[in-house]
Structure formats: C-alpha cells, structure tokens
Design goal:
The complex is a heterodimer of chains A (about 230) and B (about 300).
Chain A (H helix, E strand, L loop, with lengths): L1 E9 L5 E10 L4 E6 L5 H8 L7 E6 L2 E2 L8 H5 L2 E5 L10 H10 L5 H14 L15 H13 L5 E5 L7 H17 L3 E5 L3 H6 L3 E6 L2 E6 L9
Parallel strand pairs in A: 3-8, 3-9, 6-7, 7-8
Antiparallel strand pairs in A: 1-2, 1-4, 4-5, 9-10
Helix pairs in contact in A: 3-4, 3-5, 4-5, 5-6
Chain B lengths: L1 H20 L1 H38 L1 E6 L8 H9 L4 E7 L1 H12 L19 E6 L5 H9 L4 E6 L2 H42 L1 H9 L4 H38 L13 H34 L2
Antiparallel strand pairs in B: 1-3, 1-4, 2-3
The chains are: A alpha/beta (about 230), B alpha+beta (about 300).
C-alpha cells in the first residue's frame, strides 16, 4: 500500500529532512511513526499526501507513483489518502454534519449519496447526536472524531493521522485510538499514525517505526516504544 | 460535465459568501471598474460616432481625374480599367465634356449659364473620371498613382484639410485605445487584490478542500464567479450613464453636432451594442483579475 525506496528530501534552504529512507507498509496495517521534533516525521507525511515532492527516490502510495504524478492530478490522488491533524482543521461556520459533508461535496458527489454517507460516518465515529452542533459546541475529542470522519468520508485506502491525540487528555486519546482501530478493522483502511504518546504506543502495541535525523533507526514489527534519546 | 452542473449552486453560494464577507473591498474594486467603464463608454461613444462621421466624409471625397485630349474615345474604357485596377480605388465614373460643362454650370449657379456658349466643339474642358476611394486616408497615395497612368492629364482632390482632420481623429482613436487599455489593466489589478483578500480570508477552507482532494478547478470557480460579479456590479452605473446620457444628448441636439454633416448615430440599436460591450469588458476584466490571483495562489501550493 505504501512503498518508499531510498527517499531523500532536501528543502530549498538546504535542510535535509529525509536521508534515503525505504519503507514498505502493507494494506490494512496500522503503523506508528515516532521520533523527536525535526526527525523528519512531518516531511514524511507531506511526501505521502503529495504536499511535498521527494528530491530523490521512489514513492508509491495506494497504487500511485508520486514521483511521476503531475501536479494537476494530485487532488485526485488525495481522495485515496485521508489526513487528520492535531489541530482538527474544522470549518467553524459549518455544523458537524456539514464539515463531514464538505469532503464529499468538493469531490462532486450527489447530494443523496452525501446525506447517506455522512450518516454512516457519523455513526462510525459515534457523533450522530452532535450532527447539528458547531465545532465550538463540542469537546476536543469530539472535534478530532469529526476530523477523522471527514478524512474517511471518501473511503480512502490510507489514513494518515498526524498526532491526532496531541491536544487531548489520556481518556479522549483512548477514544481516538479505539476509533482508529475500529476504522482499520472494519473498513480495512491502512493507518499511519504519528505520535509522541509513549503510553499509547506501549498499551496498543503495533508496528512502530522510529525516525531520527531523517533516517529510520528502528522498525519494530511487534511494536512497543523505543526511546530516541 | 454532470458533476460541473451539480456543483453550480455550491459555487454560487461560496461566491456570495466571499462577496458578503469582503463587501467593502468588493465595493472599492467595483468602483474602480465603474471609473474605467465610464471612460471606456464615453470613448466608445465618441469613437464610433467619429468612425461613422469619417466614413461619410470619406464617401464624399472624390478625385477628379482629367484625361489627355490625345486619348481617343475607343481607348477610354481601357484607361478606365487601368484606373480601376489601382488598389484603394472603389469606383470610377466616366464624365464626358458635356457632363463636365454641366457640373461647372451647376457650381456657378445662375452665372454659370454664361458657360453655355462653350457647349459643343468649343468646349475647352477635358473629359474626366470621377474616382472614389475605399479609405479617405489613402487619397494622397491613390491620386499619385492615378497621375502616373499614361493618358491622364491630372488628378486632383479637394478637401485636403478634411483629410488632415481625419488623420488627427485616427490619432485620437489610437491614443484613446492605449488609455483605455491602461485603465483596464488598473481595474484588473484592483480586482485581483480583492480576490487575494478573499483567498486570505478563506485560507483554512482552501487548505481543507485540498486536504480532501478538491480539484483546482473546483477551488477556483467561486473566486472566478466573484470576479465576474465585481465586474458586473461596477458596470451598472456606466451602462446607465451611457444609455440615458446618449439618449438625452441625441434628443437635445436633434441628432447632429454643429453641422448636419456630423450626424449622431441613432440610439437604437447602437446603445444596446455599447451596453453589451461594456458588460462584456466588465466580465472579462473581473475574470482576468480573479484568475490571476487564484491561479498564483494555487500554483504556489501543491
């Protein structure tokens, strides 16, 4: 599902964010990416969703060779990759229902389908009761569930979560990880989660990749937290 | 294509939001379009009327070509054909000695009757061609070419001052077009700035659109609609001014300026065309302005 071969990223400023990393993630896998600030996690995510192009190497995500993808085709590629950020990125003037529907509207889905799919998604993220609420009327955990709902509305093959629990307390973090596990299990979505949460990684053991200075320094198939100090 | 039509109501809704949220900027850009279009409208009215005036003047300017006496009658038609073959010549009408005398008598009115004594063999006038040209500004060149044709005694035209005036009008028209282009560029710049602000206000929304895979076309369309709306909003006043102002002017002047030679074009359907042209320019200016901003923004972001 995700295949990186000797990927290097050097920014125009000369900063080397990734140094020839290779990575293979199969369909349906749930993988943690851990590492200190500046280790290359954000760059990796940007490369995986087409926000940045690799300077060298091959990138293939959900069957698309990103190194050969024309800029104009990037939006169509992104429909296969859902992304969730720490800051939720919700539209404050739209209700929970409308925020999720927005992802389907912009890809020109039919209104009838949008209504049906949004109801399905809100059920999956357990927010049916909050459909008419605005983002400022719900908790942080609920906001993140809306963001996850929006990211999976288009049924992406891959879901990238960039520190989805970063702004949440342990209880809410548990809820989010449980939701992601459910999506992974029920929808078969490949999930890549960037996190700093040691307890979460230890408690819900999954394949864990440690990045340091733009290199993959550990890839634990059995999971568990590895210190990057 | 079906998807495009399905999105139209959504695009209009987004464009309306953009206008409402940045209403002050919308108004300021629209007023720039208004100023530009008022000037363009005035310029168009003057230019089209001048053009019509120049055409009627051109039609009145003729070259009087006198034929050598040595040219026999049977050679006249081939000589006429050689004059007709000159580029810039619209028509050539032969006028024999008698007709030339008639014309002279007509010019002098009652006193001209005196010339009747010259009719017949005593007529000293030369046979002539009356030549009309396709473009009044070419008259000098055409006259010189006709004079060079063997068998032609002389070629003269009257009203050289009119030709100079027409050349001055041409210059005014060219200068006016440059002026209008500069103003249009300014309006494009102002609209593009307004759209830039709208984009800034909707940055988060655009980021999310990109996140979930909205195509550049989908993101761009509401901004383009907004640009068109700003253009059209700015066109209302100029169209009104041109439409009612010209109709009033036409009524007050009785349809001509100073002299019946300078007849104003009748308001209908002329004003409909001018209004359509102004609306068209407004749409194009709005479209280009917003396209520049939004394309630049989308170009910078992957």
């Amino acid at each position: 599902m995700i295949k990186l071969e000797n990927v290097t990223k050097v920014y125009k400023t000369g900063t080397r964010a990734l140094n020839g990393i290779s990575l293979y993630i199969n369909q349906g896998e749930f993988v943690y990416i851990i590492g200190a600030t500046g280790s290359g996690k954000s760059t990796l995510i940007k490369i995986l969703n087409g926000e940045e192009a690799a300077s060298k190497g091959k990138v293939n995500v959900a069957g698309t060779d990103l190194t050969k993808l024309r800029t104009g085709r990037i939006p169509y590629f992104r429909r296969n990759v859902g992304v969730v950020y720490q800051d939720f990125c919700l539209l404050p003037k739209k209700t929970v229902f409308e925020n999720v529907a927005f992802a389907l509207e912009v890809v020109s889905e039919k209104t009838i389908y949008i209504r049906k799919r949004v109801r399905e998604v809100l059920k999956l993220v357990d927010l049916e009761e909050k459909a008419k609420s605005f983002p400022n009327e719900i908790s942080g955990g609920q906001k993140q569930r809306v963001a996850i709902g929006r990211a999976i509305a288009n049924k992406p093959k891959v879901l990238i979560a960039d520190e989805p629990t970063g702004n949440l307390d342990p209880e809410k973090s548990e809820e989010i990880i449980a939701l992601l596990e459910r999506i992974n299990r029920e929808e078969g979505t490949t999930i890549l989660m960037v996190t700093h949460d040691k307890e979460l990684v230890e408690k819900h053991k999954k394949r864990t990749i440690l990045l340091q200075d733009g290199y993959i320094v550990a890839d634990l198939m059995e999971g568990g937290y590895v210190s990057h100090d | 294509m079906i998807k495009f039509f399905r999105n139209i109501p959504r695009h209009f809704k987004e464009a309306r939001n953009g206008i409402v949220r940045n209403f002050a900027m919308t108004l300021s850009s629209a007023s720039a379009v208004t100023v530009t279009l008022v000037l363009i409208g005035a310029f168009l009215l003057v230019a089209v009327n001048l053009d019509s005036f120049m055409t009627s003047v051109e039609e009145g300017v003729q070259i009087h070509v006198r034929i050598e006496d040595t040219v026999s009658e049977d050679k006249i038609s081939s000589l006429q054909a050689s004059v007709e073959a000159i580029s810039g010549v619209r028509s050539v009408v032969y006028s024999d000695k008698d007709s030339e005398l008639d014309a002279l008598i007509e010019v002098y009115g009652e006193e001209g009757e005196l010339f009747e004594t010259y009719r017949g063999d005593a007529n000293p006038l030369k046979r002539a061609f009356v030549v009309e040209v396709t473009d009044g500004l070419l008259i000098d060149e055409v006259t010189a070419k006709i004079e060079a044709v063997p068998g032609i005694f002389s070629a003269l035209y009257g009203g050289s001052s009119i030709i100079e005036m027409m050349s001055a009008f041409e210059n005014i028209k060219s200068g006016g077009i440059i002026f209008v282009l500069i103003l249009s560029a300014l309006a494009v710049f102002l609209i593009s700035n307004t759209i830039k602000l709208t984009i800034f206000a909707r940055q988060d929304e655009i980021r999310i659109m990109r996140l979930v895979g909205a195509s550049n076309g989908y993101i761009r369309t509401p901004f383009l609609l907004e640009g068109i709306f700003i253009g059209l909003l700015g066109a209302i006043l100029p169209i009104g001014l041109v439409y009612f102002g010209y109709t009033y002017l036409y009524t007050v002047t009785g349809g001509y300026f100073f002299t019946p030679l300078f007849t104003l074009i009748t308001p209908q359907p002329f004003l409909m065309y001018i209004s359509g042209a102004l609306a068209g320019i407004a749409i194009i200016v709005g479209l280009i302005g917003s396209y520049i901003s939004v394309s630049r923004y989308l170009w910078w972001k992957r």
